[in-house]
Amino acid sequence: MFAGDQNGLQGDPRLKAISEAIRVVPHFPKPGIMFQDITTLLLDHKAFKDTVDIFVDRYRDMGISVVAGIEARGFMFGPSIALAIGAKFVPLRKPRKLPGEVISEAYVLEYGTDCLEMHVGAVQPRERALVIDDLVATGGTLSAAIRLLERAGAQVVECACVVGLREVKGQHGLNGKPLYILVEPRQQINCSAPPVNGVETCRHDDLILGGNFGSPEVCDCDSVREQEIVLRGYSVVAIALDTLRRCSSPPPSVFSPPLSPSPLPSHRSSGISVSVQNPPVSENLPVNGAEWVCLFAREMLSATIVNDAKVRASKLLEVSG
Ligand SMILES: O=P(O)(O)OC[C@H]1O[C@H](OP(=O)(O)OP(=O)(O)O)[C@H](O)[C@@H]1O
Ligand SMILES: Nc1ncnc2[nH]cnc12
Predict the structure, then answer these.
(1) Active-site residue 200, yes or no?
(2) Least confident of 28-32, 40-44, 137-141, 171-175
(3) What is the three-class DSSP state of 93?
(4) In angstroms, rounded to a whole number, what is the distance separating the alpha carbons of residues 74 and 232?
(5) Is the pTM of this model over 0.90?
(6) Which of 41, 109, 178, 214 has a 20 to 30 Å separation from 253 between CA atoms?
(7) How far does residue 273's CA lie from ligand 2's centre (Å)?
(8) Of ligand 1's atoms, which has the minimum distance to the CA of residue 140?
(9) What is the pLDDT of residues 292-304, one digit of tens each?
(10) Which phi and psi angles does 163 have, rounded to 5°?
(11) What's its catalytic activity (predicted)?
(12) What Rg do the C-alpha atoms of the chain give, in angstroms?
């Protein structure tokens, strides 16, 4: 539910000011993401205070004794709200940050998984809890927070975020818990080109599948297609890097010795250049899907030229059967 759709807050100028205080950074941390940077909201004393006040006004009489903030950006709003409504603040942290005994909940991100942890004993059974974060995109993080609190026996009254999409994809996955959002994510650039046959010419859909708030922001309609291709290229590299980072132990290359970066003899097939020299394949082939993904990411990042990448990809397809 949006604060602006609610009784007293319809047309409230504070919401517009809060929205405008949030900086939008295109293609951060990866191509296609319109990053909603709340650090600029924190620099604006009035907008920051208004943000906290709106939450405090909503939650002060709801019998909430726990405000659970999600690392890291939920920590920037949660403690102030907790102090003002007379609740305790419980940090929900990323793995291996809390020193005491913890319970953990894994959740799915765009590419890979992450985990939230909470100290055992921080919350008592039947306590009424509010979950606070800066932003909801897929809802995966909030869902993990809800599961943690419910495992400890708490009753999650609501989740609250400063920024969120009107149609939060993950809302149905929030275990039926209500979600309260102050403002929608902003797109940075407005498109002035006229529609053609009723179709918006400047809009191009999320460049990365699930790329949160990733469209539309490109207005040079003639080059949209070209930019999209380039961005998809960047995306593949970003995904590979991200995947590799998450691999607990990167698998060894299946190519032994490593492929040479020099142009390889090739024959043409369907327009793709493929090596006719089959490098020896290591015995250590992946044993499951996750290992194959890690291996693919590793090979793509090891490639020095496009031909090298194509050879590695075709070899992987061959050895994977
Ligand atoms: O709705 P979701 O798709 O789960 O995404 C929302 C989460 O993503 C961001 O955190 P991030 O994981 O980037 O961590 P950070 O706050 O430590 O930067 C944001 O602060 C939310 O916690
Ligand atoms: N677009 C976005 N901006 C800031 N944080 C995010 N977390 C997930 N998507 C985000």
Answers:
(1) no
(2) 171-175
(3) strand
(4) 31
(5) no
(6) 109
(7) 38
(8) 4
(9) 777 777 777 777 6
(10) -120, 140
(11) AMP + diphosphate = 5-phospho-alpha-D-ribose 1-diphosphate + adenine
(12) 24
